[in-house]
Amino acid sequence: MKAHVLNWRTLLAALACVAGLSGCQNLPPAPEHKYYRLLALPASPAQQAVHLPGELAVRPLRAEGLYSERAIIFSDEQQRQLQQYHYHHWLYPPGQLVQEHLAAWLRQAGIAPSVRLQEHGGEALYAISGRIVRFEKTTVAGQAKASVALDLRLEKKGKLLWQQTYTAGKAVSDATMNGFSAAMEVALNQIYGEFLADLGRLRLD
After folding, report:
1. What residues contact 103, with CB distance under 8 A and at least 6 apart?
2. Each residue of 26-79: pLDDT tens digit?
């Protein structure tokens, strides 16, 4: 009698395991993490007219709070609440991402004989540094756009030559994250152009 009861218990336990495995197999796959980088757009001929008579170092931009993390940020219609996407990330934190993107753009613009990346505190004749003020996807009246604000500064041997906060926004052409990253490239390109135009009015030698 005890063996009979034990067999039934064993059978029920086996059926429960099979049912559990079947349920797990029917669950949808976990969302895939996706990572995005920025491609440098070409500078215009007018922007290429600015030349520094010496090596230029581009340092990482400072970033605080959510802007220091890799997850892509989006804001609500009122632009008060910031949130992070769970599965969409920048390839690097925005401070490093913009550093490398800006350096590549400046090389294309031919701003200096040499443009290199540099960590904070290194020696350089000219150095660009700054801070991420805004770097996110915003939605207003149903229209999504890339919104960015950068505080950029140029130093010569540690002496401040120029500093200003630049803002730009570019509407997203489609609802994909690829469309958003492309819009961010255009917005950054606008800021870089304005920054370079301001430098062109300075005495840099």
Report:
1. 58, 115, 116, 117
2. 667 777 999 999 998 888 877 777 889 999 999 999 999 999 999 999 987 777
Tokens of 114: 């040499």
Structure tokens, 161: 């030559």
Domains of the chain: 34-199 (3.40.50.10610)
- Provide φ and ψ at 140, rounded to 5°: -130, 125
The model's pTM: 0.83
Q: Average pLDDT for residues 79-91, to the nearest whole number?
A: 91
Between the CA atoms of 148, 91, 97 and 193, what dihedral angle is there, to the nearest 10 degrees?
-60
H helical segments located in the chain: 2-25, 94-109, 177-199
Alpha carbon of residue 95 to chain centroid: 8
Distance, CA of 164 to CA of 129 (rounded, Å): 11
Q: What is the mean pLDDT of residues 67-94?
A: 91
